[in-house]
Protein backbone atom coordinates (compact mmCIF):
# COMPACT_ATOMS: atom_id res chain seq x y z
CA UNK A 1 0.00 0.00 0.00
CA UNK A 2 1.43 3.38 -1.04
CA UNK A 3 1.94 6.11 1.52
CA UNK A 4 -1.01 8.15 0.22
CA UNK A 5 -3.23 5.05 0.14
CA UNK A 6 -2.74 4.59 3.89
CA UNK A 7 -4.89 7.62 4.66
CA UNK A 8 -8.66 8.04 4.50
CA UNK A 9 -10.78 11.15 5.04
CA UNK A 10 -14.49 11.60 5.64
CA UNK A 11 -16.32 14.86 4.89
CA UNK A 12 -19.70 15.55 6.53
CA UNK A 13 -21.25 18.75 5.14
CA UNK A 14 -24.16 19.32 7.50
CA UNK A 15 -26.69 22.13 7.89
CA UNK A 16 -25.14 23.17 11.22
CA UNK A 17 -21.49 22.12 11.02
CA UNK A 18 -18.97 20.78 8.52
CA UNK A 19 -16.60 18.07 9.77
CA UNK A 20 -13.52 16.37 8.35
CA UNK A 21 -11.99 13.28 9.96
CA UNK A 22 -8.63 11.87 8.88
CA UNK A 23 -7.62 8.29 9.67
CA UNK A 24 -4.81 5.89 8.79
CA UNK A 25 -5.01 2.23 7.77
CA UNK A 26 -2.55 0.48 10.09
CA UNK A 27 -2.35 -3.34 9.70
CA UNK A 28 -5.97 -3.40 8.51
CA UNK A 29 -7.00 -1.38 11.57
CA UNK A 30 -8.41 2.13 11.20
CA UNK A 31 -6.48 4.60 13.36
CA UNK A 32 -7.79 8.10 14.17
CA UNK A 33 -5.41 10.95 13.28
CA UNK A 34 -7.38 14.19 13.46
CA UNK A 35 -10.72 16.00 13.27
CA UNK A 36 -11.59 19.46 12.01
CA UNK A 37 -14.96 21.20 12.37
CA UNK A 38 -16.35 24.52 11.19
CA UNK A 39 -19.72 26.22 11.34
CA UNK A 40 -21.71 25.42 8.20
CA UNK A 41 -22.80 28.36 6.11
CA UNK A 42 -24.65 28.16 2.84
CA UNK A 43 -26.78 25.07 3.59
CA UNK A 44 -30.44 24.63 4.45
CA UNK A 45 -32.03 21.24 5.21
CA UNK A 46 -29.07 19.42 3.69
CA UNK A 47 -29.19 21.42 0.43
CA UNK A 48 -26.59 23.96 -0.69
CA UNK A 49 -28.11 27.42 -1.08
CA UNK A 50 -24.81 29.38 -1.24
CA UNK A 51 -21.92 27.55 -2.89
CA UNK A 52 -19.13 29.98 -1.94
CA UNK A 53 -20.09 29.94 1.75
CA UNK A 54 -20.18 26.13 1.74
CA UNK A 55 -16.73 25.98 0.10
CA UNK A 56 -15.35 28.31 2.79
CA UNK A 57 -16.77 26.08 5.55
CA UNK A 58 -15.18 22.99 3.98
CA UNK A 59 -11.80 24.73 3.68
CA UNK A 60 -11.83 25.78 7.35
CA UNK A 61 -12.69 22.25 8.51
CA UNK A 62 -10.03 20.71 6.23
CA UNK A 63 -7.34 23.12 7.43
CA UNK A 64 -8.09 22.30 11.06
CA UNK A 65 -8.08 18.54 10.44
CA UNK A 66 -4.80 18.76 8.48
CA UNK A 67 -3.10 20.77 11.23
CA UNK A 68 -4.12 18.20 13.88
CA UNK A 69 -3.32 15.10 11.81
CA UNK A 70 -0.20 16.45 10.07
CA UNK A 71 -1.48 14.88 6.84
CA UNK A 72 -2.86 16.71 3.77
CA UNK A 73 -6.40 15.87 2.61
CA UNK A 74 -6.47 15.26 -1.15
CA UNK A 75 -9.58 13.09 -1.43
CA UNK A 76 -12.50 12.24 0.83
CA UNK A 77 -15.68 10.22 1.12
CA UNK A 78 -18.62 12.63 1.49
CA UNK A 79 -21.98 12.11 3.16
CA UNK A 80 -25.32 12.72 1.43
CA UNK A 81 -28.48 13.49 3.42
CA UNK A 82 -31.59 15.64 3.39
CA UNK A 83 -35.24 15.54 2.45
CA UNK A 84 -34.39 14.68 -1.16
CA UNK A 85 -33.22 11.16 -0.19
CA UNK A 86 -35.70 8.36 -0.98
CA UNK A 87 -35.52 4.63 -0.36
CA UNK A 88 -37.55 1.94 -2.15
CA UNK A 89 -37.51 -1.86 -2.05
CA UNK A 90 -37.29 -3.65 -5.39
CA UNK A 91 -37.04 -7.17 -6.80
CA UNK A 92 -35.57 -8.58 -10.00
CA UNK A 93 -33.85 -11.65 -11.36
CA UNK A 94 -32.11 -13.47 -14.19
CA UNK A 95 -32.42 -16.91 -15.77
CA UNK A 96 -29.13 -18.81 -15.65
CA UNK A 97 -29.88 -21.23 -18.48
CA UNK A 98 -31.88 -24.30 -19.43
CA UNK A 99 -29.98 -26.41 -16.92
CA UNK A 100 -29.02 -25.77 -13.32
CA UNK A 101 -25.42 -24.61 -12.93
CA UNK A 102 -23.07 -23.03 -10.42
CA UNK A 103 -23.85 -19.39 -9.64
CA UNK A 104 -20.93 -17.06 -10.34
CA UNK A 105 -20.20 -13.53 -9.18
CA UNK A 106 -21.26 -12.13 -12.56
CA UNK A 107 -24.68 -13.82 -12.14
CA UNK A 108 -25.12 -12.12 -8.75
CA UNK A 109 -24.21 -8.77 -10.30
CA UNK A 110 -26.74 -9.26 -13.12
CA UNK A 111 -29.51 -10.19 -10.66
CA UNK A 112 -28.81 -7.11 -8.53
CA UNK A 113 -28.75 -4.95 -11.67
CA UNK A 114 -32.14 -6.35 -12.69
CA UNK A 115 -33.54 -5.53 -9.22
CA UNK A 116 -32.17 -1.97 -9.28
CA UNK A 117 -33.66 -1.29 -12.71
CA UNK A 118 -36.46 0.98 -11.51
CA UNK A 119 -37.89 3.93 -13.42
CA UNK A 120 -36.55 7.21 -12.08
CA UNK A 121 -37.42 10.83 -12.93
CA UNK A 122 -34.70 12.66 -14.87
CA UNK A 123 -33.53 14.59 -11.82
CA UNK A 124 -32.88 11.51 -9.65
CA UNK A 125 -30.01 9.03 -9.44
CA UNK A 126 -29.22 5.82 -7.57
CA UNK A 127 -26.89 6.30 -4.59
CA UNK A 128 -26.87 2.75 -3.15
CA UNK A 129 -28.23 -0.68 -4.01
CA UNK A 130 -28.33 -2.68 -0.74
CA UNK A 131 -29.21 -6.38 -1.18
CA UNK A 132 -31.72 -7.90 1.27
CA UNK A 133 -31.70 -11.51 0.20
CA UNK A 134 -31.46 -13.78 -2.83
CA UNK A 135 -33.69 -16.56 -4.13
CA UNK A 136 -32.32 -19.54 -6.03
CA UNK A 137 -35.17 -21.27 -7.88
CA UNK A 138 -37.75 -21.80 -5.09
CA UNK A 139 -35.41 -21.31 -2.14
CA UNK A 140 -35.72 -17.96 -0.34
CA UNK A 141 -33.74 -16.19 2.38
CA UNK A 142 -30.26 -16.76 0.91
CA UNK A 143 -27.62 -14.23 1.99
CA UNK A 144 -24.87 -15.22 -0.47
CA UNK A 145 -25.80 -17.40 -3.45
CA UNK A 146 -22.23 -17.63 -4.81
CA UNK A 147 -21.37 -21.25 -5.65
CA UNK A 148 -24.91 -22.56 -5.22
CA UNK A 149 -26.63 -24.45 -8.05
CA UNK A 150 -29.80 -23.27 -9.78
CA UNK A 151 -31.54 -22.15 -12.97
CA UNK A 152 -32.93 -18.79 -11.82
CA UNK A 153 -31.48 -16.23 -9.44
CA UNK A 154 -33.57 -13.38 -7.99
CA UNK A 155 -32.58 -10.51 -5.69
CA UNK A 156 -34.52 -8.36 -3.22
CA UNK A 157 -32.75 -5.02 -2.78
CA UNK A 158 -33.20 -1.64 -1.12
CA UNK A 159 -32.48 1.16 -3.60
CA UNK A 160 -31.53 4.58 -2.21
CA UNK A 161 -32.04 7.47 -4.64
CA UNK A 162 -31.15 11.14 -4.35
CA UNK A 163 -31.61 14.39 -6.24
CA UNK A 164 -28.89 14.46 -8.93
CA UNK A 165 -28.40 18.21 -8.61
CA UNK A 166 -28.24 18.16 -4.79
CA UNK A 167 -25.57 15.45 -4.80
CA UNK A 168 -23.61 17.11 -7.61
CA UNK A 169 -23.61 20.43 -5.74
CA UNK A 170 -21.99 18.72 -2.73
CA UNK A 171 -19.34 17.22 -5.01
CA UNK A 172 -18.78 20.61 -6.69
CA UNK A 173 -18.36 22.34 -3.31
CA UNK A 174 -15.79 19.74 -2.23
CA UNK A 175 -13.92 20.05 -5.56
CA UNK A 176 -13.84 23.86 -5.28
CA UNK A 177 -12.35 23.44 -1.80
CA UNK A 178 -9.57 21.31 -3.33
CA UNK A 179 -10.97 17.90 -2.34
CA UNK A 180 -11.41 15.04 -4.80
CA UNK A 181 -14.55 13.04 -3.93
CA UNK A 182 -13.71 9.32 -3.87
CA UNK A 183 -17.24 8.16 -2.96
CA UNK A 184 -20.66 9.43 -1.85
CA UNK A 185 -22.41 7.64 1.02
CA UNK A 186 -25.84 8.01 2.63
CA UNK A 187 -25.18 9.66 5.99
CA UNK A 188 -27.39 7.41 8.20
CA UNK A 189 -25.73 4.39 6.54
CA UNK A 190 -22.37 5.83 7.61
CA UNK A 191 -23.68 6.58 11.13
CA UNK A 192 -24.89 2.98 11.39
CA UNK A 193 -21.45 1.74 10.29
CA UNK A 194 -19.90 3.52 13.27
CA UNK A 195 -22.66 3.12 15.86
CA UNK A 196 -24.69 -0.08 15.49
CA UNK A 197 -23.63 -3.52 16.66
CA UNK A 198 -24.16 -6.58 14.48
CA UNK A 199 -26.62 -7.90 17.09
CA UNK A 200 -28.74 -4.76 16.75
CA UNK A 201 -28.72 -5.06 12.95
CA UNK A 202 -29.75 -8.72 13.13
CA UNK A 203 -32.49 -8.33 15.74
CA UNK A 204 -34.03 -5.15 14.27
CA UNK A 205 -33.01 -1.57 15.02
CA UNK A 206 -33.76 2.00 13.86
CA UNK A 207 -31.05 4.65 13.81
CA UNK A 208 -32.22 8.27 13.89
CA UNK A 209 -29.63 10.72 12.57
CA UNK A 210 -30.96 14.04 13.90
CA UNK A 211 -29.18 16.78 11.97
CA UNK A 212 -29.80 20.50 11.85
CA UNK A 213 -32.42 20.62 9.11
CA UNK A 214 -33.78 17.04 8.87
CA UNK A 215 -33.84 13.71 10.68
CA UNK A 216 -32.79 10.69 8.63
CA UNK A 217 -33.99 7.18 9.48
CA UNK A 218 -32.43 3.84 8.65
CA UNK A 219 -33.98 0.54 9.73
CA UNK A 220 -32.10 -2.76 9.92
CA UNK A 221 -33.46 -6.27 10.49
CA UNK A 222 -31.93 -9.61 9.69
CA UNK A 223 -28.60 -7.84 9.22
CA UNK A 224 -29.77 -5.83 6.18
CA UNK A 225 -31.24 -2.38 5.47
CA UNK A 226 -35.04 -2.55 5.17
CA UNK A 227 -35.92 1.14 5.02
CA UNK A 228 -34.43 4.62 4.65
CA UNK A 229 -36.24 7.96 4.75
CA UNK A 230 -36.14 11.49 6.16
CA UNK A 231 -38.56 13.66 8.12
CA UNK A 232 -38.43 17.48 7.84
CA UNK A 233 -37.63 18.29 11.48
CA UNK A 234 -34.14 18.69 12.94
CA UNK A 235 -32.22 20.44 15.69
CA UNK A 236 -32.49 23.86 14.03
CA UNK A 237 -36.29 23.75 14.42
CA UNK A 238 -35.89 23.48 18.21
CA UNK A 239 -33.47 26.42 18.17
CA UNK A 240 -35.76 28.57 16.02
CA UNK A 241 -38.73 27.80 18.27
CA UNK A 242 -36.75 29.05 21.27
CA UNK A 243 -35.59 32.16 19.40
CA UNK A 244 -39.19 33.09 18.48
CA UNK A 245 -40.80 32.02 21.76
CA UNK A 246 -38.26 33.78 23.97
CA UNK A 247 -37.59 36.70 21.58
CA UNK A 248 -33.84 36.11 21.64
CA UNK A 249 -31.21 35.93 18.84
CA UNK A 250 -30.70 32.52 17.23
CA UNK A 251 -27.07 32.09 18.50
CA UNK A 252 -28.34 32.78 22.04
CA UNK A 253 -31.21 30.33 21.56
CA UNK A 254 -28.77 27.63 20.42
CA UNK A 255 -26.58 28.23 23.47
CA UNK A 256 -29.41 28.02 26.02
CA UNK A 257 -30.87 24.96 24.25
CA UNK A 258 -27.58 23.11 24.73
CA UNK A 259 -27.01 24.30 28.30
CA UNK A 260 -30.52 24.30 29.77
CA UNK A 261 -32.92 22.71 27.25
CA UNK A 262 -35.03 19.68 28.20
CA UNK A 263 -37.42 17.81 25.89
CA UNK A 264 -39.94 16.72 28.53
CA UNK A 265 -41.51 18.56 31.48
CA UNK A 266 -41.71 15.29 33.46
CA UNK A 267 -37.90 15.10 33.39
CA UNK A 268 -37.30 18.71 34.53
CA UNK A 269 -35.66 18.50 37.96
CA UNK A 270 -34.86 22.12 38.67
CA UNK A 271 -36.76 25.20 37.46
CA UNK A 272 -33.62 27.33 37.39
CA UNK A 273 -33.61 30.98 36.38
CA UNK A 274 -31.69 31.77 33.18
CA UNK A 275 -30.55 35.16 31.97
CA UNK A 276 -30.91 35.55 28.19
CA UNK A 277 -30.05 38.25 25.68
CA UNK A 278 -32.87 40.20 24.09
CA UNK A 279 -33.24 41.19 20.45
CA UNK A 280 -31.74 44.56 19.46
CA UNK A 281 -30.54 46.93 22.17
CA UNK A 282 -33.04 45.79 24.78
CA UNK A 283 -31.60 44.73 28.16
CA UNK A 284 -31.15 41.03 29.06
CA UNK A 285 -34.14 39.23 30.60
CA UNK A 286 -34.64 36.37 33.03
CA UNK A 287 -36.58 33.26 32.02
CA UNK A 288 -37.05 29.92 33.77
CA UNK A 289 -36.19 26.38 32.69
CA UNK A 290 -39.85 25.32 32.48
CA UNK A 291 -40.43 28.04 29.87
CA UNK A 292 -37.81 26.42 27.61
CA UNK A 293 -39.39 22.99 28.07
CA UNK A 294 -42.86 24.31 27.24
CA UNK A 295 -41.44 25.39 23.87
CA UNK A 296 -39.21 22.37 23.20
CA UNK A 297 -41.55 19.53 24.23
CA UNK A 298 -44.23 20.07 21.51
CA UNK A 299 -41.51 20.10 18.83
CA UNK A 300 -39.97 16.92 20.27
CA UNK A 301 -43.39 15.25 20.27
CA UNK A 302 -43.94 16.33 16.65
CA UNK A 303 -40.58 14.84 15.61
CA UNK A 304 -41.29 11.52 17.32
CA UNK A 305 -44.84 11.41 15.87
CA UNK A 306 -43.46 11.90 12.34
CA UNK A 307 -40.98 9.06 12.90
CA UNK A 308 -43.69 6.77 14.32
CA UNK A 309 -46.00 7.52 11.38
CA UNK A 310 -43.19 6.81 8.90
CA UNK A 311 -42.44 3.42 10.49
CA UNK A 312 -46.13 2.49 10.68
CA UNK A 313 -46.65 3.35 6.99
CA UNK A 314 -43.89 0.91 6.09
CA UNK A 315 -45.19 -1.79 8.45
CA UNK A 316 -41.97 -1.66 10.49
CA UNK A 317 -43.25 -0.50 13.89
CA UNK A 318 -43.14 -4.03 15.30
CA UNK A 319 -39.85 -5.03 13.67
CA UNK A 320 -37.33 -3.12 15.80
CA UNK A 321 -37.08 -4.97 19.14
CA UNK A 322 -33.48 -3.77 19.58
CA UNK A 323 -34.91 -0.25 19.74
CA UNK A 324 -33.60 3.12 18.59
CA UNK A 325 -30.17 4.74 18.44
CA UNK A 326 -29.92 8.56 18.38
CA UNK A 327 -27.09 10.01 16.29
CA UNK A 328 -26.41 13.57 15.18
CA UNK A 329 -26.06 16.71 17.27
CA UNK A 330 -29.84 17.09 17.57
CA UNK A 331 -29.99 13.84 19.51
CA UNK A 332 -28.04 15.45 22.36
CA UNK A 333 -31.07 17.45 23.57
CA UNK A 334 -31.53 16.44 27.21
CA UNK A 335 -34.49 14.15 27.79
CA UNK A 336 -35.11 13.38 24.11
CA UNK A 337 -33.90 9.80 24.53
CA UNK A 338 -36.20 9.20 27.52
CA UNK A 339 -39.16 10.84 25.74
CA UNK A 340 -38.50 8.60 22.71
CA UNK A 341 -38.38 5.54 24.98
CA UNK A 342 -41.81 6.41 26.41
CA UNK A 343 -43.25 7.18 22.96
CA UNK A 344 -42.02 4.07 21.17
CA UNK A 345 -42.02 1.65 24.12
CA UNK A 346 -38.61 0.41 22.97
CA UNK A 347 -35.10 0.88 24.38
CA UNK A 348 -33.29 4.04 23.20
CA UNK A 349 -29.58 4.79 23.47
CA UNK A 350 -27.22 7.49 22.25
CA UNK A 351 -24.89 6.69 19.35
CA UNK A 352 -21.25 6.15 20.17
CA UNK A 353 -18.68 5.75 17.41
CA UNK A 354 -16.64 2.56 17.67
CA UNK A 355 -14.32 0.52 15.49
CA UNK A 356 -11.52 3.10 15.24
CA UNK A 357 -8.24 2.92 17.15
CA UNK A 358 -7.21 5.87 19.35
CA UNK A 359 -10.55 7.64 18.83
CA UNK A 360 -10.77 10.36 21.52
CA UNK A 361 -13.83 10.27 23.76
CA UNK A 362 -14.73 13.79 22.60
CA UNK A 363 -15.03 12.48 19.01
CA UNK A 364 -16.89 9.26 19.91
CA UNK A 365 -20.05 11.35 20.33
CA UNK A 366 -23.40 11.33 18.47
CA UNK A 367 -22.60 14.49 16.47
CA UNK A 368 -19.48 12.85 14.97
CA UNK A 369 -21.00 9.42 14.27
CA UNK A 370 -21.51 10.25 10.59
CA UNK A 371 -18.01 11.52 9.82
CA UNK A 372 -16.43 8.58 11.72
CA UNK A 373 -18.74 6.20 9.87
CA UNK A 374 -17.78 7.63 6.48
CA UNK A 375 -14.15 6.68 7.13
CA UNK A 376 -15.08 3.22 8.47
CA UNK A 377 -17.37 2.62 5.47
CA UNK A 378 -14.53 3.58 3.10
CA UNK A 379 -12.10 1.30 4.94
CA UNK A 380 -14.48 -1.66 4.71
CA UNK A 381 -15.12 -0.99 1.00
CA UNK A 382 -11.36 -0.92 0.41
CA UNK A 383 -10.85 -4.23 2.26
CA UNK A 384 -13.64 -5.86 0.24
CA UNK A 385 -12.13 -4.63 -3.04
CA UNK A 386 -8.67 -5.90 -2.05
CA UNK A 387 -10.07 -9.32 -1.08
CA UNK A 388 -11.86 -9.64 -4.43
CA UNK A 389 -8.73 -8.59 -6.28
CA UNK A 390 -6.74 -11.17 -4.30
CA UNK A 391 -9.25 -13.90 -5.11
CA UNK A 392 -9.12 -12.95 -8.80
CA UNK A 393 -5.31 -13.13 -8.85
CA UNK A 394 -5.42 -16.53 -7.08
CA UNK A 395 -7.86 -17.87 -9.71
CA UNK A 396 -5.65 -16.59 -12.54
CA UNK A 397 -2.58 -18.28 -11.05
CA UNK A 398 -4.53 -21.53 -10.68
CA UNK A 399 -5.67 -21.33 -14.33
CA UNK A 400 -2.17 -20.80 -15.63
CA UNK A 401 -0.79 -23.51 -13.35
CA UNK A 402 -3.41 -25.93 -14.69
CA UNK A 403 -2.64 -25.00 -18.30
CA UNK A 404 1.13 -25.54 -17.95
Rg result: 23 Å
Number of helices: 10
Name of the CATH first level of the domain at 86-162: Alpha Beta
How many strands?
20
Strand order of the largest sheet: 3-2-1-6-13
Helical proportion, percent range = 25-40%
The rounded distance between the terminal residues' Cα atoms is 31 Å
Shape: globular
Structural class: alpha+beta
CATH topology tier name of the domain at 86-162: Dna Ligase, domain 1
Largest sheet: 5 strands, mixed
Order of helices and strands: EEEEEHEEEHEEEEHEHHEEEHHEEHEHEH
Low-pLDDT residue intervals, each spanning 5 or more residues: none
Beta content = 25-35%
Report mean pLDDT, rounded to a whole number: 91
Return the CATH architecture of the domain at 86-162: 2-Layer Sandwich
Descriptive notes:
- The chain has a domain at 86-162: Dna Ligase, domain 1.
- Helices cover 37% and strands 31% of the residues.
- The protein is of the alpha+beta class and 404 residues long.
- A 5-stranded mixed β-sheet has the order 3-2-1-6-13, sandwiched between helices.
- The model has no long low-confidence stretch (mean pLDDT 91).
- It is built from 10 helices and 20 strands.
- Strand 17 and strand 18 (285-288) form a beta hairpin.
Amino acid sequence: MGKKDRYLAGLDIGSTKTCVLIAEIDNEQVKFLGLGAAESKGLRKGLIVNLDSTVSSIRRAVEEAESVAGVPVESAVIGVAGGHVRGVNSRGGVTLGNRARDIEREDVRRAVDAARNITLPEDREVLHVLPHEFMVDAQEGIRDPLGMVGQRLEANVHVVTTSSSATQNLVTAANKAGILVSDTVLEPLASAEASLTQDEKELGCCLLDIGGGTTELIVYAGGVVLHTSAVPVGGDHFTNDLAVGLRTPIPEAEKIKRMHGCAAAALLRDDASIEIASVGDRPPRTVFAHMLTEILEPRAQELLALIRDDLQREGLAGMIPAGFVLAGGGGRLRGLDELAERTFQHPVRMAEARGMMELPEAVAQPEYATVAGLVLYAARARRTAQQRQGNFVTKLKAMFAGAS
